[in-house]
Structure formats: C-alpha cells, structure tokens
Amino acid sequence: MQNNAKLSQLLLSDDINPHLKDIAQKVSTDKRISNEDALFLFNETELSDVGVLANYIREKKHGDNTYFNRNFHLEPTNVCLYTCTFCSYSRLIKKRSEGWEYTHDDMMNIIKKYDDEPVTEVHIVGGVLPQYDLKFYANLFSAIKAHRPELHIKALTPVEYHYIFKKAKVSYAEGMKIMLDAGLDSMPGGGAEIFHPEIRDQIAGGKCSGEEWLQIHEEWHKLGKRSNATMLYGHIESYDHRVDHLDKLRTLQDSTKGFQTFIPLKFRNKGNEMSHVPETTVIEDLKNYAISRIYLDNFDHIKAYWPMIGRETAQLSLAFGVDDLDGTIDDTTKIYSMAGSEEQNPALSTEQLVNVIKRVGRKAIERDTLYNVVQDYTDVVFESDKQYKGYVQLPVV
Ligand code: V47
Ligand code: SF4
C-alpha cells in the first residue's frame, strides 16, 4: 500500500519531529488526536505531513470514492435582519427594495421548474425575515412534499430555527418535531461560523449562539435525523478558536452520531464589512481540510464546497482528506458569488463534475443526501472525456 508506505516513513524516520511521529502513530492505530495535537498540526507542520495523514484516513474510510449529489438551491430571500460582518447579503436590509423576497407561490414555482430534472435534493437557505415564520416554513415543506414526495428537503439552519421557534413560543424540541412532521428531511451545516463567543460576538452578534446552534442540532438528532456541520474559517479567528469549534462538534457527535459531513467554509472577502481581512492561501485551505479530517474521527465525510473554492482547489482537496464535492448545483445560489467565490455562476453538469473527479484519479459516485449510492460512474466514459490526456494515475491502494 503506497499510502501506508508514506505513513510508515513518518513513523520510522529519525528526522521526523517526535510530536508528529506520535500523531502518526495515533492515526495508524485509529486513536483519537487531542486538541494539543491539532494545535501542533496547525502551527508546526508542513502541508505534505498533514496530507499524508489525512489521505491515509480518507482512503481507509472511502478508498477513491468521491461523492456528489444532484441538487438545487432555493434562497427565499437575500434580505436579513442580522448583520453578520462576513456576509455579503446583510447590507441589503438597508436597501430592501434591491433584494428579493419570494412568496410561497414563487418558491413552489421554482420547485416545479425542476419537475423533469433528476435532482434528489433541494437545499433551502437564505436570510431571516419576520414573514418567514414557523407557519410559513411548515406550509412550504408540506407543499413541496405533496408536490414531489421523493425530493429530499435539506433546509434552514439553527439561525432561522432559533428565530422562528422563539417567535412561535415553542421549545427547540417542539419546533424540530413540527418541522419533521411538515416534511423536513435533514438540516444543512450553515450558521455555525465560529462557535467561540470571542469571535462569534464580533462577526455574527445577535444571531443564535454557538451553544444554541449545537442544542438545535442535538434536538434534531434525537429525532433520529441527520445534519451537517460547517466552520467559517480564515478571518479573525485563531487556531485555538478553530480547535475549540472542532472539539464541540466532535463531542456532540460522540453523543448523538447525527452528523454526516463536515464542511470547512473558506472566508471570502468581497462586498462585505470584512473586505480588509485578507483571504487564506490555498496551502492554508488544504491544511485546514486535512487537519479537520484527522481530528474529526467520528465524522464519516469531509466536504469541499466547490462553488466556493473553485474546481481546481476542489480537485486538490481530494488528496487532503476530502471525499465529497457537494452537488451539481446550477446558478441558483448567490451567497458565494456575491462574496467573491471562485465560481461566479456556479454550474456544473453531472458529466462535468464526474470528469472533475475522474481526472484526478478518483471514483465518481453519485449519492443521495443520506449517502445511499445513486450511481457509480467508474465505468462510464463520457464522449467529452475520450480525448482527454491528462488523467492522474493514483497508486493502487
Ligand atoms: O452559514 C456566508 C457561509 C454558510 C460567507 O450542509 C460565507 O451541505 C465564506 O452552510 N465567505 C451557508 N462563507 C452555506 C452552508 C452550506 C453550503 C454548502 C453545503 C452545505 C451543506 C452548507 O455560508 C453560512 C456562512 O458560514 N458564508 N458568507 C463569506 N463571505
Ligand atoms: Fe443573515 Fe445569514 Fe447573512 Fe448572517 S450570514 S447576515 S444570518 S444571511
């Protein structure tokens, strides 16, 4: 096993830092790394070192399998009561008339546009406004299910839920049960930002706290349902804050096992109040994926959200712990293009996304939201790829 051989080099070489050797030993024997280990990895190691460890874990868990799904985004509004400093939406509350605020019927019309498309998931997320209350979303989810029962509804974050449950005077447990009964299938990972109040109060003051974010996911998991988790990194946080964030996720996951996927979100600085904060380098991004993979031993999947980082970095990330590239979304999401993401009008067909994955030597597997395999594209060769000469051959593991 080539990948094992690289890990053995770390374990056996006399030149390797003893702390790194100790971490490599833990990884090779399936032992959990500590917070101190994670800080050491962030502060004192090379990208290539964490890459070896993360890729070892990635291939042990998934081989070359790289997952994606067919989804589309529905963004009810780009106007928001809150004013998160990193968000390229938030200024629009002052200029409400320039934004959009879809009605129930507008949203159902968008859902119906996909009637003949083989999509498996709708991802619903947007700003927070009073008219989008508990009753509104319960009606919307029920209407989507009545129209297309098999379409998976992955919708809203604890930011919205905290707001609408408080307004409706229901507890988190009661509110999540109402959403479940209305048709909610799973929760996306957004709104997590950085849990630690030292940072959260500065960048996302006023919306749900880190503790409340975790409590809402916990209530959802108690209903036997799944969700994702994110971390918005690369702005004013320190490595201690990142490790604290990962620690809180790993601890909750130990008790509920309800998280499916962790998605690190790179801060993009265009058109928001933090435009003066420089963005991280691609090396930092890859290191962050890798350390997340090593630390979160109880998470099955690490996702790189390709519209945000671009397809080339997404390809690279597959060698640094990532096994999922999200979906074949079209340009229905505006959050990231407004924040200066690599992909201005993110759209990749299934064929293009499969090619992105296969060209770096991985296997493209279409999944549904819960990671059931929809189609394995290993033996499918598209016309567009027959002439392609640059395939990467990975060592046989
Ligand atoms: O919570 C907003 C982030 C998140 C910026 O669960 C920004 O499958 C970077 O959570 N720079 C929402 N990030 C998106 C999200 C998500 C995306 C894809 C898949 C899944 C999933 C979840 O976007 C927000 C916030 O953390 N965000 N502005 C920005 N300027
Ligand atoms: Fe509103 Fe979400 Fe933007 Fe914060 S990140 S201002 S809660 S849309």
Q: How would you state the average pLDDT, rounded?
A: 92
Helix content: 40-55%
State the low-pLDDT regions, or none: none
Approximate shape? globular
Task: Specify the oligomeric state.
Answer: single chain
The main pleated sheet reads as: 4 strands, mixed
Distance between the termini: 5 Å
For the record, the CATH architecture of the largest domain stands as Alpha-Beta Barrel
Q: Which value, in Å, is the CA radius of gyration?
A: 21 Å
Total of DSSP H or I helical runs spanning 4+ residues: 16
Strand content: 5-15%
* Lateral strand order in the biggest sheet: 9-1-10-11
CATH superfamily (homologous) name of the largest domain? Aldolase class I
* CATH level-3 fold name of the largest domain: TIM Barrel
Number of domains: 2
Order of helices and strands: HHHHEEHEHEHHEHHEHEHEHHEHHEE
CATH class of the largest domain: Alpha Beta
Instruction: Identify the bound ligands.
Output: ligand V47, iron/sulfur cluster
Question: How many strand segments?
Answer: 11
